Task: structure prediction
Amino acid sequence: MDSGAIGVGIIGLGTVGSGVVRLLEDAPTSMRRREHVEFSIERIAVRDLSKERDVEIDPAKLTDDPTAVLDDPNVQLVVELTGAEPAYEWVRGALERGKDVVTANKALLAERGEELYALAREKGAELLFEASVAGGIPIIRSLRNGLVANRVESLYGILNGTTNYILTRMTRGEGGYDEILSDAQAIGYAEPDPTMDVSGRDAAQKLAILSRIAFCCAGTGSDVFCEGIEEIESSDIDYARQLGYVIKLLAIAKRSGESVEMRVHPAMVPADSLLANINDEFNAIEVVGSAVGNQVFYGKGAGQMPTASAVVSDMVAVVERKADGAGPAVGDMVLGQEALPVAPVEQIQMRYFLRMQVCDLPGVLEHIARILAGEEISIASVLQKERDVDGGLVPLVIVTHEAREESVQRALDAIASVEAVQGAVRLIRMEEL
Ligand SMILES: NC(=O)c1ccc[n+]([C@@H]2O[C@H](COP(=O)([O-])OP(=O)(O)OC[C@H]3O[C@@H](n4cnc5c(N)ncnc54)[C@H](OP(=O)(O)O)[C@@H]3O)[C@@H](O)[C@H]2O)c1
Result:
C-alpha cells in the first residue's frame, strides 16, 4: 500500500462496485489534481468468488467473507455496495471499528439511519451516502452544503426511474401499465420483482433520507404515506391531459407547522411545470428554499456510472475532511431536540381528481355532490360524457377544490355505498407545484 494512500475495502463488486473500481482506476484530472486523494483498494468481498468480473482485480484481494474486509488493518474506509440483508451488520461493524463508511444503501439508511449516524458520531467515524438517493445527482451534498443557509419549505421529487419510465410511456400512448412494465423488465429498467419500485416504497425510502437533511424530520421510510402506480389506467392519463395535467409518481415533503408532510403517490401536475416534463428513467428534485427560491436538480437517478460517480465523490470527501483535520460530517444527521415529527396524512389539504362509473340515471350526480358538500368539499369541475355510455354506466369525473384528506376519505366511503356507483372510486391527488 502506498504511504499516504487511504486503504479502501469494498463489500460488493456488482454493478455499482465495478463502476467504482473503474472510476478509481481512470480517475479524471479533477480527482488527480487534488492533493490528498489517493486510494488503495486493499480487500473486496463478494458472494461468489468464482464469478467472472468485468474489472481486473488481483484475486488475492478477493474474499467471500465481508468480516475480513472489516478486520483488515490496512482498510480505513469501507464502501458497502451490496444491498444485501446483512449490510446493517457490516456497516455497524465498520463503524464500531472506527472505520469510515460510504454506502449506496437507501433501505438501510431510511429505516436504521438514526442508530447508524449516532454510532458514527460516537466513534468519530464518517458515514456518507450520496448514492443512496437519485444516483448521480448530488442532491444530498447540495442540501447539506450548498443550500445550508436556507430553510427548506418544500421538496418535490421524481425519485424512481422505473415508475417514471412506465408513466412516461403510458402518457405517450405506448401501452397500458402491465404491457409497459413487462417491456421495462425486458430491458432491465424494472426488477423481476418490481414491487419496491411500483408501490412507491423505493421513493419513500429516498424521501425519508432527504427529509432528514432538509427538514430535520425524524420519520423513517415506513412513516411515509405511500401509494403506488399499479392502479393507474390509460383513461386516468387521458383525463389528466384534458384537464391540462400529467401524472407523475411524486415524492413530496413540506414543512407544515411543527411537523413535516411526507408522502409518495401518483399526482397530477400541471403539464407546463418542470417536473411534468421529466421523462423516461430520469430523476429530478425541486427544492424550495427560503433564500434561493426554486431550484431543480435533474439527471440520471441510477445506473452503473452515475451511481459510482456519487460513491467516489463521497470517498473523496472522506479523504479531504481527514486531511483537513475536520471531524466527520455525520454529526448533522443526528437530530436531537430539533427533530420534527411526520404530519398525519389525514390533515393534508390538496385538490383531488375523482373518477367513478355510475348508472346513467337522473339524480346520481346530485346525490354525489350532496355527499361531498356534507364533508365541506366543493367541486371545481365535472366531466361526464354521454358517448362513453357502456352497459348503462357512464364515467363521472369530479375535480375538487382544496379539501382535507380525511374528509375526502370519508366522502369516498359514503360514495362507495351509493347503489348507482359501480366499483371503486379512483382518487388521484393534484399538486399545483
Ligand atoms: N444499480 C444501481 O443503479 C443503483 C443505484 C443506486 C443505488 N444502488 C444501490 O447500490 C447497492 C449495490 O447495487 P448493485 O446494483 O451494484 O447490486 P448488484 O449488482 O446486485 O451487486 C451486489 C454485489 O454484492 C455482492 N454481495 C451480495 N451479497 C453478498 C454477501 N452476502 N457477501 C458478500 N458480497 C455480497 C454481490 O456478490 P456477487 O457479485 O459475487 O454476486 C455483488 O457483487 C445497493 O444497495 C443498491 O440499492 C444501486
Residues 406 and 430 are 16 Å apart (CA to CA). The chain has a mean pLDDT of 95. The domain at 6-136+304-334 is CATH 3.40.50.720 (Rossmann fold).
